[in-house]
């Protein structure tokens, strides 16, 4: 599909957390970056007519609808941006691809491997007709993470031996926190594993260029029953919104696993919603034969780098302030030292997506790459169910074809 007058008319489904983050990015991207096409915030979809009208007004969308099928089938929509929970990703993405639209879908790609396979296959078919698709692993687009990847790709770490990744939250430590959609498997697919574990799986594979080949895992659901929410809501739901009735938590609260990467590295991963005091603490450290790097999302403008080729007396972790024009994504932003934040990762995501679509190349992570993450999630679940037995990660279409 080509763009119309160099305009990409976007239709977005879902208007809460990610809907707001994506809106901010769509609003900003063409004002910051000089791109071959402009995004137009054409149509937003939500299930409640009044709320979606408010959201359209607040977030800056031209029109609104309560029917995502109308959105994906409208001839004047070029891009479908999916910001709904995982239970609707496959249905919306498949319909959008069948209608020839470019698709940006939030992570994790789907709730099951079967859905993810179908989506990756549909994306490959649609690609022949010019439709592009991408999954929203936005942390790849934090400049310090992109710099980490560059350093590793340039050989500055030598042979990668260790990958250490944690993603820690605490928003459901209170057992009275209600049973929101993220705690129901039929809506979310899994718990901490697919929600935040998927990010560190993708991020570490992206920066190292290595794929997880097998895992041994434990998962736990610490609080097994929770009050039903007064009204189903997302991360912002408050415990005092809960009623007297309760329901079972059907996902993991925490997932921890060790892994082997196909380039020879050993890795540890921890994803939990029970790390009391940790709000959104994503940290990755990588150790190689020639050096180490460490990234902490709470200090996202910084990258720690140890260069072990320097004289021993001068070695130590250097704090690189990743705000130079030479650093990834940053030449369009502010003068050096004028830091950026969380939302910028989404603006960078939209930049890469628009550029790929407008120039006719495949954006990354593709649905095939996101399927591979789904296969890792599946291996973790299988291993945990089998008392932590080793579970090999099934080859995805991408690796099988390679
Ligand atoms: N990239 C990230 O860092 C990140 C962060 C949070 C969430 N996510 C992902 O984004 C997606 C949405 O999460 P969220 O936190 O924005 O959830 P949310 O609960 O804040 O918002 C979900 C939105 O989807 C709408 N919705 C649900 N089902 C729908 C349907 N059938 N038709 C139309 N609208 C529907 C809801 O009304 C709401 O507007 C999930 O896949 C989640 O994993 C990604």
Automatic annotation (TrEMBL):
Residues 8-127 form the Gfo/Idh/MocA-like oxidoreductase N-terminal domain. SUPFAM superfamilies: Glyceraldehyde-3-phosphate dehydrogenase-like, C-terminal domain, NAD(P)-binding Rossmann-fold domains. One of its GO terms (molecular function) is oxidoreductase activity. Residues 146-293 form the GFO/IDH/MocA-like oxidoreductase domain. It comes from the Bacteria. The keyword Oxidoreductase applies. The keyword S-adenosyl-L-methionine does not apply. It holds the Pfam family GFO_IDH_MocA. InterPro entries: Gfo/Idh/MocA-like_OxRdtase_N, Gfo/Idh/MocA_oxidrdct_glycsds, GFO_IDH_MocA-like_dom, NAD(P)-bd_dom_sf. Keywords: Oxidoreductase. This is Oxidoreductase. It comes from Micromonospora sediminimaris.
């Amino acid at each position: 599909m080509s763009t119309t007058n160099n305009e990409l008319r976007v239709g977005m489904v879902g208007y809460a957390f990610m809907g707001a983050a994506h809106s901010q990015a769509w609003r900003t991207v063409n004002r910051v970056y000089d791109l071959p096409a402009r995004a137009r915030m054409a149509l937003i979809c939500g299930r409640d007519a009044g709320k979606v009208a408010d959201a359209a007004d607040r977030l800056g969308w031209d029109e609104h609808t309560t029917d995502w099928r109308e959105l994906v089938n409208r001839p004047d929509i070029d891009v479908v941006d999916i910001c709904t929970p995982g239970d609707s990703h496959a249905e919306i993405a498949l319909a959008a691809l069948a209608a020839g639209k470019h698709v940006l879908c939030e992570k994790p790609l789907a709730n099951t491997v079967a859905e993810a396979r179908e989506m990756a296959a549909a994306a490959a078919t649609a690609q022949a007709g010019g439709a592009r698709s991408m999954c929203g692993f936005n942390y790849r687009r934090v400049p310090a993470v992109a710099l980490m990847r560059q350093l590793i790709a340039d050989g500055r770490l030598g042979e990668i031996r260790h990958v250490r990744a944690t993603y820690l939250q605490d928003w459901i430590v209170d057992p009275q926190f209600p049973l929101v959609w993220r705690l129901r498997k039929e809506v979310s697919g899994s718990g901490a594993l697919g929600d935040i574990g998927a990010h560190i799986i993708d991020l570490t594979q992206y920066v190292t260029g290595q794929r997880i080949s097998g895992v041994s895992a434990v998962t736990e659901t610490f609080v097994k029953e929770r009050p039903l929410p007064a009204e189903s809501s997302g991360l912002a739901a408050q415990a005092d919104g809960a009623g007297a009735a309760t329901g079972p938590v059907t996902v993991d609260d925490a997932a921890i696993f060790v892994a082997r990467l196909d380039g020879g590295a050993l890795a540890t991963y921890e994803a939990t919603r029970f790390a009391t005091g940790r709000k959104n603490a994503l940290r990755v450290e990588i150790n190689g034969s020639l050096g180490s790097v460490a990234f902490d999302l709470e200090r996202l403008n910084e990258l720690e780098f140890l260069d072990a080729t320097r004289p021993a007396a001068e070695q130590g972790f250097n704090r690189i302030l990743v705000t130079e024009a030479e650093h990834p994504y940053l030449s369009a932003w502010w003068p050096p030292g004028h830091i950026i934040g969380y939302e910028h990762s989404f603006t960078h995501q939209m930049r890469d997506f628009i550029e790929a679509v407008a120039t006719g190349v495949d954006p990354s992570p593709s649905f095939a790459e996101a399927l591979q993450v789904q296969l890792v999630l599946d291996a973790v679940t299988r291993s945990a169910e089998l008392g932590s037995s080793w579970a090999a990660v099934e080859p995805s279409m991408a690796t099988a074809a390679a």
